[in-house]
Structure formats: C-alpha cells, structure tokens
C-alpha cells in the first residue's frame, strides 16, 4: 500500500512555492515521521527563496519549525517516542535533504531534535520554538559558542553571584529562547529591545533592558553591566552594526566572546572574540548538546512551565497553499510574534499511481 504526501516545493532558485505531491519519507534508524499540524516561518526561509544559495539542491522543501503527531519511529528512538505523541521538531532539510523540510504533510525529523509537547500546549503555539531552541543552544552551550553552564546543572550555589549574559535582540525569536535558556542555566540576562517590548523580555526573565533605538544604547549597556561578572554576549540579530555594538560593550568590560547568528566582522578590539554560530552545530558537530537540550531539558521544561512558547504565534493561513503568503509576511517584518500556518492533515490514503513533484 502506497501512502501520499504533499509539500510546498520551491522548484528552482528564487521561485515561488508550488504545492505538489512529494515522496513518502523512508524512516531511518535515527528518524521519525510526523503528520504535520502546524509550521512556523523563519527569516532563513524567505532568504533562501529570495537570495538563492545556501547549498540548496532543487526542487526543495523549505521550513525548519514543525509540530505534529508521530506516525513512525526509527529503531534508535523507539524507547523515547511512540506513534500518536504530539511533538515539535527542528526540521533540518538544509543538512539532510528535502524529505526533512518542514513545509510538507509528512516530514522526517531527527529524533535528537524532537521533543514531546504536553497536551495543554497547542501545537500552533509550540511550533514557534524549534529552530530558536537549536540556534540558542548552539550559541550558549557548544565549545564553538560560549560554552556556558547547561540548564541541567545545579545552580543553587550561585545565589547572588550569578554571571550576566548580554543578549542583543531579546524580543526576536532566537533572542526569546536565548533568554529563557540562559535564565534556566543560572545566568542574569541583560538585553536590548524596543521600548514596546520591554515587558515582553522581562516576562521571559531578562533583568536589565535597554532600548536599542537609543543613540547611546552602547553606553547605557556598559553602565548597566559595569559592576557585573560578564559571561559573554549573544547577538541574536547578527548585523555588522549589532556585532560592533556588542564588541564595544565587552571591550569596555575587559573583553570576552560574542556568539553571533550572522556577521563576524573584524573589530578593533583584540580582547573580543566573535564566532558565527548556526543551529546545525548541535546536529552534526556537537550532538551531545542536542541530547542534553532537546532530549532532556526541553520536554521537562515544557511540562514544568520553565520553557514557554514565545514569541506568540501569528496564524496567517491554514494549509500548504498559504505558506508562500507566510514567507512574504515574514519578509515584511514582524515584532515579538512568529508567522504560523496551521495544517489539518487527514489520514493518509492509498494511491495506486502517486505522482512525485521531485521526480
């Protein structure tokens, strides 16, 4: 019996998405197949579409944030997942091919980048988390990144001696997860945000907040942190300007390391190190971090409420045909919210002559 799948394909470089049939995925030992209930849109999705590059082989299925119900489990994860469980996962098509892209009804997920979602959290809310969790973890906990203490370690002895992490862009999707993970790991968080999002980042756990619109924001942040033990900086924006602002802060405080999601330009400070990080680090270079964060912390923290799905979803559609509009809206810009498209999958049905867009 053959089962049908469909996807929102990008057929060639810089093309609009086209909904068409897709191969039924073949589950590997380290994989899961899920039935998609919701996907979220990230800047990388429209950047791949608009700019090309990224090492993509076409036709391709975009998407990194997905939530749904487990359909099949590979041999190495049968102890951890069961069919019918509600999960979120970081879809890693850029590393493993279009079968792992999120924007399809039945994607493959890496078991190491998947977590069970408690029943009280709607999947359309939980879906905002995956890519931001992986990207946050890559910058915070890997040896390539800041190599900070993990949220699974005991922090009770720190009391009032908590080191401070600077997070530039705390209201962004990645910044929201960085704040939550850092606080869970026992760090005090200082962050930047627009004035309208001060309450938002404080709710996530930030203690000190500066308005990045202020022309003297760098000076203000230095003042905030002058008497603190600085653990480093996480630049969740990654522009050349923000990296240089972070570097100026760390230099004034005696130096340190910046983990940036984007640019890693040269700066005139020999006491400041800048590393560009990506979510893929925890998938292919330091899988121990994925095991600790995705395998242990995320499912437990979702149950306890220590990790909450933020930013809030902005649902803009209800099917694969609405994904392109979601990409367009994300490209226009959103603040303290994340574009989400809900899917309402039906039970897979037999097909005597399936047509595959990729063939």
Automatic annotation (TrEMBL):
Domain Enoyl reductase (ER): start-end pairs: 14-341
Molecular function terms, GO-annotated: oxidoreductase activity, acting on NAD(P)H
Oxidoreductase is among the record's keywords: yes
Keyword hit for Phosphoprotein: no
Name of the protein this chain belongs to: Enoyl reductase (ER) domain-containing protein
Keywords carried by this UniProt record: Oxidoreductase
Top-level taxonomic group: Eukaryota
Similarity field: Belongs to the zinc-containing alcohol dehydrogenase family.
Signal peptide: none
